[in-house]
Amino acid sequence: MSAVIEIAGLRKTFHTLRQGRRVAVDGFDLLVESGQVHGFLGPNGSGKTTTLRALLGLVRADAGRMRVLGADSPERLSEVAGRVGAIVESPQFFGNFTAHKTLRLLALAGGVPTTRVDEVLEQVGLRERGDERVKGYSLGMKQRLAVASALLKDPELLILDEPANGLDPAGIREMRDLMRSLAAAGVTVLLSSHILAEIQLICDHVTIISRGRRVAYGPVEHVLAGFDQHQWQVRVAEPERAVELLGRAGLSVTAYPEHLVVTGVVDPELISRTLGEQGLWVRELVPLRPDLESVFLELTGDHPHPALPRQVDGAPPSDGVIDLDVRESREVDA
Length: 334
Prior knowledge:
334 residues, alpha/beta, Rossmann fold, four-stranded antiparallel beta sheet, 31% helix
């Protein structure tokens, strides 16, 4: 697959009167390949939006190299702008304009056939509300309109920053279906969202940023596998006896009021055989797999994964990164 977005060594600092010099992005790398639905995750203040703004030429980077659809950004971004649709932060619309008029003006300004207006309103579920004034829209409806504006050019690359913001559960599901349909049509999508369960359902690849640096990237299943402790939830009639038998077999067991958790077992047959040979039969044996939310909190919270060097306030940034690509999972220097 060819690279659609390439960022290497991106660095951006801001200077404020209150905080002085603040490093927003510090040597960040990002690779998005053609056809991917790529999740871009990070806590508030991690540098996520700054990265997108720099990529799209909205702020000037201090250092680093960026390419979009093969064109250096921002120098040659204008050459490929017609093939890119993007929402960064919360776009503003004229409240007295209807959605239809808003999109028509954007289409005319961008040299896009106005026939696309009804098509994109249909795509985002606003076809029946297109003649209403935007000031009467809910936050979720405004977000749908923003996505519609990004789709006007029928882009090859779609960059969306929090597209599900303000949507109800039905709207989130519709947005998920839209992302899947776009991916099926060959559109590459870079998707930023705080709804981690949705990212896990929608995206095939993910990049996680924390304190301006990449801390994990790769196929979602590989990122999750890196945190899989091979745990199993076990229920038996005699839990105390089960703890004794499993411990005697050298297995790590934690007892909870209603179940046991066995850690470090790849093949669950070892658990059932160990207990069954002593006449203790397993009632329940369920794998406990990490989800994207737990991995995200582990990587970006106060207690990082042991593979990640801890950042100390005032110290130079660490060079550690969990680097999970399509070929293998390994720890490398950034």
